[in-house]
Amino acid sequence: MSDSTRVTLTDTGLRLLMGADQDPCQRQELDPEAAEQFDRLVEAGLLSERGRVLPKARPALEAIREPVSRLVIEAAVGRTGRRWSAAIGAARAVVLAPPAIALGPGVSAAEAAAFDEPPTEEFELRIMEPGWAVVDACAWAGIGPRLQRADPFTLPSDVLQRRLIDPDEAAPSGVDPELWAEPMLMWGLRADPGEHGLLVLDAGATGLWAFTATQPEASLVPLPAYEAWRFILRGLRQAA
Question: Which of 20, 99, 134, 159 is 20 to 30 A from 63, alpha carbon to alpha carbon?
Answer without folding.
Answer: 99
